[in-house]
Amino acid sequence: MHALEYLYPMRTFLITSGTMEKPNVMTADWVTPLSLNPPLVGAAIAHKRYTKKLIDEYGEFVVSVPTIELLKDVWIAGTVSGANVNKAEKLSLTFVPSKKVKAPSIKECQANLECKVVNAVETGDHVLYVGEIVEVTHEDAFKDKPDVKNYKFILHVGFGNMFTTNSSEIFKA
Ligand SMILES: Cc1cc2nc3c(=O)[nH]c(=O)nc-3n(C[C@H](O)[C@H](O)[C@H](O)COP(=O)(O)O)c2cc1C
């Protein structure tokens, strides 16, 4: 087992890049909050991803929050490279225009965080893109707190093809 697998389960997200005309989407576990003010989020993208090429070209990306119903598409987005195929045609996800970036948002996702790259840090075989969140769109029911009673988010159990989801139980600290 790789040392990093001890950090799992991890939440799984989608990252869109490119443009509405030529969109791409990949799956990413390695997404992390970095700053409240300004709102910054980090995404670690391997050098060999087509997504990296598109983020370098446009300086923008969107972090989309999928639920477990989208697992089939999340798996395709995470196993097929947009370098070889137009993934948009293989997926049943709907790309919709974002408000402040060229990279599209995903209609079926519960939230879309539109990001502009403010820094890129080389981290071994990945690049940590630091994105400033310039706009967020979300489901109406999602505006107060993430709704873990009604939404089943995607948790990656470890490296490989096993996933789980959140429980609707709430424990107060
Ligand atoms: C659940 C899951 C999580 C993943 N997390 C990441 C990640 O955080 N960073 C990364 O570079 N690749 C990650 N990948 C791999 C990419 O999603 C995958 O290589 C994808 O095909 C890249 O697409 P692209 O070449 O079109 O950018 C993940 C794959 C899966 C299935």
Task: Describe the protein.
It is a single chain. The protein is mainly beta and 173 residues long. The chain has a single domain (10-164), classed as Electron Transport, Fmn-binding Protein, Chain A (Pnp Oxidase, Chain A, Roll). The protein is built from 3 helices and 12 strands. Strand 7 (95-96) and strand 8 form a beta hairpin. The longest helix is centred in the N-terminal third of the chain and has 9 residues, at 50-58. The termini are far apart. The structure holds flavin mononucleotide (FMN). Flavin mononucleotide binds next to strand 3, strand 5 and helix 1. Flavin mononucleotide (FMN) is lined by residues 12, 24, 26-30, 44-46, 49-51, 78-83, 126, 156.
Describe the structure concisely.
It contains 3 helices and 12 strands, in the order E-E-E-E-E-H-E-H-H-E-E-E-E-E-E. It is mostly beta strands. The protein has a single domain (10-164), classed as Electron Transport, Fmn-binding Protein, Chain A (Pnp Oxidase, Chain A).
Gross geometry: globular
Q: Overall pLDDT, averaged?
A: 96
* Class computed from helices, strands and strand pairing: mainly beta
Largest beta sheet: what is the strand line-up? 3-2-6-9-10-5-4
Order of H and E elements:
EEEEEHEHHEEEEEE
User: How many strands, which pairing sense, and closed or not: the largest β-sheet?
Assistant: 7 strands, antiparallel
Named CATH topology: Pnp Oxidase, Chain A
Helix content: 10-25%
Which ligands appear in the coordinates? flavin mononucleotide
Domains, number? 1
By DSSP (H or I, 4+ residues per run), the number of helices equals: 3
In percent, how much strand structure appears in the residues? 35-45%
**Low-pLDDT residue intervals, each spanning 5 or more residues:** none
Q: Tell me the radius of gyration.
A: 15 Å
CATH superfamily, by name, is Electron Transport, Fmn-binding Protein, Chain A
Second CATH tier, the architecture: Roll
Q: Give the beta-strand count.
A: 12
